[in-house]
């Protein structure tokens, strides 16, 4: 029976079973870093020796820190010569805050490299070609679909030039987000609220509109035992009415207030202000807002605002994922709807989504949905 190294040599261009296992491990490492790497992708790497045993692992932890391949090579301590590097994203070929991973792998004496997703960033792409030119065997597209899921927020941002958008809300069984008197605490269970904070921790920014900060005076921090890097708090305030004692301005969590050019803001430093023109209706255009956040390094946004803000993103076709917590509670027609005006006059004009996951959390249902495309009347 051939050894792993012999079987590997005879299967050039294909991933061996132990290499697929290594890629799954690399994806686990990457998934654990989603939300903590800023404008960089969450990447994992596993190095295997000639017999398929794991020599080292590495993960990227954010701008200025070693890329996953370099972190793994440092851990390998010389045992990587003649080995295989399994990485979730094509090794970069770019000199930025750190050097090119392609060069590091070549100099380390790696014999074979497997990656899951080709790098769509034109500045960093080209690592696979450089590795091949150096005589290293390269196999791409290994568990690509799984890797696209782990990297989807970053990939969306790179491919579209704007952050990935998740709309999160809690609703009753009859689609109400608040009672007739405006009270909404607590529609969802404690378990759902803890899960929602985990969702916060996996995004770069949280976005709320003026209706939400007026009604709730939220902190938008991480609680319920959730640890991680607190996301940027983004508050829309076209008229400059956010009070200086707002809890959005508490503590050391970064905050960005979006307002009109020329609007005076009381007690808010200018470095915490993004000035953006509103449209004819006095609203910030969703795409212009997202592009401005992208320029500031934001690659994912969690929309936690009320029905007006959420509906603006839906109407613009700029919602990539919906996470709904549905509570077994009825509030009747007097309650506040979870969505605002969508311009829908008939069933055929309705926005249809695909359910991609359903989970029982506490007393609630957590439903995750995605649009195949924000087009009306599609089944």
UniProtKB/TrEMBL annotation:
Residues involved in Zn(2+) binding: 67, 92, 101
CMP/dCMP-type deaminase domain sequence ranges: 17-139
InterPro entries (alphabetical): APOBEC/CMP_deaminase_Zn-bd (IPR016192), CMP_dCMP_dom (IPR002125), Cytidine_deaminase-like (IPR016193), DHFR-like_dom_sf (IPR024072), Eubact_RibD (IPR004794), RibD_C (IPR011549), RibDG_C (IPR002734), Riboflavin_Biosynth_HTPR (IPR050765)
GO annotation terms (biological process): riboflavin biosynthetic process
One Pfam family recorded for the sequence: RibD_C
Cofactor: Zn(2+)
Active site positions, chain numbering: 69 (proton donor)
Free-text cofactor note: Binds 1 zinc ion.
Keywords for the protein's UniProt record, in alphabetical order: Hydrolase, Metal-binding, Multifunctional enzyme, NADP, Oxidoreductase, Riboflavin biosynthesis, Zinc
Catalyzed reactions: 5-amino-6-(5-phospho-D-ribitylamino)uracil + NADP(+) = 5-amino-6-(5-phospho-D-ribosylamino)uracil + NADPH + H(+); 2,5-diamino-6-hydroxy-4-(5-phosphoribosylamino)-pyrimidine + H2O + H(+) = 5-amino-6-(5-phospho-D-ribosylamino)uracil + NH4(+)
Annotated positions binding NADP(+): 170, 186, 212, 216, 306-312
Binding, substrate: 184, 200, 220, 223, 304
EC number in record: 3.5.4.26, 1.1.1.193
The protein's annotated pathway: Cofactor biosynthesis; riboflavin biosynthesis; 5-amino-6-(D-ribitylamino)uracil from GTP: step 3/4; Cofactor biosynthesis; riboflavin biosynthesis; 5-amino-6-(D-ribitylamino)uracil from GTP: step 2/4
Gene Ontology MF term list: 5-amino-6-(5-phosphoribosylamino)uracil reductase activity; diaminohydroxyphosphoribosylaminopyrimidine deaminase activity; NADP binding; zinc ion binding
Functional note: Converts 2,5-diamino-6-(ribosylamino)-4(3h)-pyrimidinone 5'-phosphate into 5-amino-6-(ribosylamino)-2,4(1h,3h)-pyrimidinedione 5'-phosphate.
Sequence similarity: In the N-terminal section; belongs to the cytidine and deoxycytidylate deaminase family.
Protein's UniProt name: Riboflavin biosynthesis protein RibD
Source taxonomy: Bacteria, Bacillati, Actinomycetota, Actinomycetes, Kitasatosporales
């Amino acid at each position: 029976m051939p050894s792993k190294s012999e079987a590997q040599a005879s299967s050039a261009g294909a991933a061996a079973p132990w290499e697929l296992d290594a890629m799954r491990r690399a994806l686990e490492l990457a998934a654990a870093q989603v939300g903590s790497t800023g404008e960089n992708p969450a990447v994992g790497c596993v190095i295997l020796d000639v017999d398929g045993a794991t020599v080292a692992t590495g993960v990227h932890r954010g701008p200025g820190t070693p890329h996953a391949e370099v972190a793994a090579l440092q851990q390998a301590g010389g045992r990587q010569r003649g080995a295989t590097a399994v990485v979730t994203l094509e090794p970069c070929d770019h000199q930025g805050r750190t050097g090119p991973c392609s060069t590091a792998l070549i100099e380390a004496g790696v014999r074979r490299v497997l990656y899951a997703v080709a790098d769509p960033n034109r500045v960093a792409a080209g690592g696979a070609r450089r590795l091949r030119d150096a005589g290293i065997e390269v196999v791409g597209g290994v568990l690509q679909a799984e890797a696209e899921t782990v990297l989807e927020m970053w990939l969306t941002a790179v491919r579209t030039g704007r952050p990935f958008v998740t709309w999160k809300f809690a609703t009753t069984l009859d689609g109400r987000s608040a009672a007739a008197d405006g009270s909404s605490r607590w529609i969802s269970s404690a378990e759902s609220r803890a899960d929602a904070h985990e969702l916060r921790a996996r995004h770069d920014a949280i976005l709320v509109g003026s209706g939400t900060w007026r009604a709730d005076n939220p902190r938008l921090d991480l609680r319920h035992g959730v640890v991680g890097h607190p996301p940027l708090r983004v508050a829309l305030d076209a008229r400059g009415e956010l009070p200086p004692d707002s809890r959005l301005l508490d503590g050391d969590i970064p905050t960005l207030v979006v307002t009109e050019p020329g609007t005076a803001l009381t007690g808010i430093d200018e470095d915490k202000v993004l000035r953006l023109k509103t449209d004819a209706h006095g609203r910030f255009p969703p795409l212009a807002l997202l592009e401005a956040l992208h320029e500031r390094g934001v690659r994912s946004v969690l929309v936690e605002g009320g029905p007006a803000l959420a509906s603006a993103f839906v109407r613009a076709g700029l919602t990539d994922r919906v996470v709904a917590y549905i509570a077994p509670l009825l509030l009747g027609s007097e309650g506040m709807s979870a969505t605002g005006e969508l311009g829908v006059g008939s069933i055929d004009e309705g926005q249809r989504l695909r359910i991609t996951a359903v989970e029982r959390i506490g007393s609630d249902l957590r439903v995750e949905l995605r649009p195949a495309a924000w087009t009306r009347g599609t089944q």
